[in-house]
Amino acid sequence: MDTQQVTAPPCAQPGGSGVIHVNVRHTAGFTVIGNHLAQHRGLSLVAVGLAVHIQSLPAGAKIGIKRLAERFPEGETRIAAALRELEASGYLHRSRVRLADGRVVTRTVSYNRPGAESGTATVSRPRPARESAPLSPPSFGATPEPPPEPAPRPEPQPPVARPHSDTAAVPVPQPAAFVPAPTARTTPPPPLPQPRVLTPELKAAAAALLSDLRRLAPQLLLSEADIGALTPGVATWLERQAHPDTVRQALTADLPVPLKHPAKLLRHRITALLPPPLPGAQEWEAVRPRAMVIPLQNCDRCDRAFRSRHPGHCRDCRTDLATAA
Questions:
Q1: Are both 308 and 249 inside the same structural domain?
Q2: Residue 323: what pLDDT?
Q3: CB-based contact 97:109 (threshold 8 Å)
């Protein structure tokens, strides 16, 4: 009767405004997460949740960006940004590895405590499937046989020098070779699109649109040099009859967090999301009838200006000459 009940949750203090924990001890199906990750001040909520999900997965699970985008409601852009945050904080390391058969795969290593000593860390690897031997039915009433004693380990023998032979040596398998990280660019970026005719009005409208992007997204603060370099690309969008609101939406939607290089991101989106010209727009420009401009001429008699393809007299002077004749 005098045993203290330790399983009942503590009662809430009246008038308290903080969080109240009701903890139940886990006995199976749980993952230990450190407070350095759960309360990390430099990571976003998406990155913290993604790190917890990755640490709860078994060894050998697929954690590609497309696989995670199918699992969670966040898009591929946010998931990729969260993976980069975890890499920068030391919770994740990704590298490209070339296998013996020539295939290149991405090897991902998850660290539940970055910066810990290597001697205290344990590495979990996928367990290979093993064939289990059939079990014999137990015989009731029979005395179990004692397990056989292990065979004595043979003592190591000194190496024996082998005579040289002309036969080809057996090739030794080479370890997997590492290739550059997936974020490294091996090919130059595509050129920025250029308009057919960059008029002063089109150039001013494109520059004003780029300068105004920081009102919609403060992280898209561009310098004058960046605006001057990106203006031809935005002018190409406007030349192809793209509405300015459509251009703003395409350049500011679903930005990664954090955004380190806004000019490079805008250059990629301007080039990759460029809409095609309207159907028949170029053909209509080629066959559209142009306005005929008749030049001005000065009358040889009264020096009045009149439009005509050939010099001569104006209409009034021609009338007077006809009457006199």
A1: no
A2: 77
A3: no
